[in-house]
Specification:
By secondary structure, the chain is an alpha+beta fold. Helix content is about 15%, strand content about 25%. It is built from four helices and nine strands, in the order βαααβββββββαβ. The strands form two sheets. Strands 1-6-3-8-2-9 form a six-stranded antiparallel β-sheet. It has a three-stranded antiparallel β-sheet with strand order 5-4-7, with no helix packed on it. Bound molecules: fe (ii) ion (FE2). Fe (ii) ion binds next to loops.
């Protein structure tokens, strides 16, 4: 029988290679650990106060390159990014130093438009980056995709029936995704190396908004423009 599947409304998560990676890692890996937000003590990077890695001029080469990756992301969406002004509003460092460090629980980032993670030091045993959706529109019947019941209906996973997708954290690459998408990390094997990532949030202001002479944009006066 002849039939066609229309793939509608796919979510875009960008993954690109960081050009400055080798030099950046050699120069900055140790100092980056000082920006670790320490999830053991602090519930989130905000509580740690270590959310301004982008203010460190030693890291400028990465944050300047970040702009190009955001351009690529918007290219996929056919957005004229020349009309946008990107601002990193927070950036911090995430680490696991051993096999015991807990993975990052499911969460979203509020108060920003896009979020990113740059895998500065990882290997093939590092926790996977997982992206989740709360509701799968293809689950037209309750529990259709449920796997924790005795009489499972689902026979395998594909991109239509999954609510969670994993992305391998390849060292020297970075991912960009909408901040309001649920995400977390998942340990899947014994970790063999320290994991060090730079993560952060970006707001995208239309340039014409930034030119408004009102108090509206005064809150962004303290953030660092990528331009
Ligand atoms: Fe996150």
């Amino acid at each position: 029988m002849n039939y066609k599947i229309h793939e509608l409304f796919p979510l875009v998560v960008y993954q690109g290679d960081v050009k400055c990676h080798q030099e950046f890692k050699e120069k900055n890996l140790e100092s980056l650990k000082e920006y670790w937000f320490n999830g053991y003590i602090n519930e989130s990077p905000e509580y740690s106060g270590r959310i301004f890695a982008h203010h460190n001029l030693e890291y400028k080469v990465f944050f300047e390159e970040l702009r190009t990756h955001i351009d690529n992301y918007f290219d996929t969406l056919l957005i004229d990014y020349s009309k946008l002004d990107y601002h990193v509003i927070k950036s911090w460092v995430g680490c696991h130093f051993d096999d015991e460090t807990p993975s990052v629980k499911p969460h979203t980032h509020n108060e920003s438009n896009l979020s990113f993670v740059y895998y500065t030091n990882t290997d093939e045993t590092s926790d996977k980056f997982c992206v989740a959706q709360q509701q799968n529109k293809n689950e037209s019947v309750g529990d259709l995709f449920q796997t924790a019941i005795q009489r499972n209906l689902i026979t395998g996973y594909n991109k239509y029936n999954c609510n969670v997708y994993t992305i391998t954290p390849k060292e020297g690459s970075m991912v960009i995704f909408p901040s309001n998408i649920g995400h977390f990390t998942q340990k899947f094997t014994k970790r063999e190396c320290e994991r060090v990532v730079i993560a952060g949030d970006i707001s995208n202001f239309e340039e014409r908004i930034c030119r408004l002479p009102s108090g509206f944009h005064s809150s962004i006066a303290m953030v660092r423009s990528l331009k």
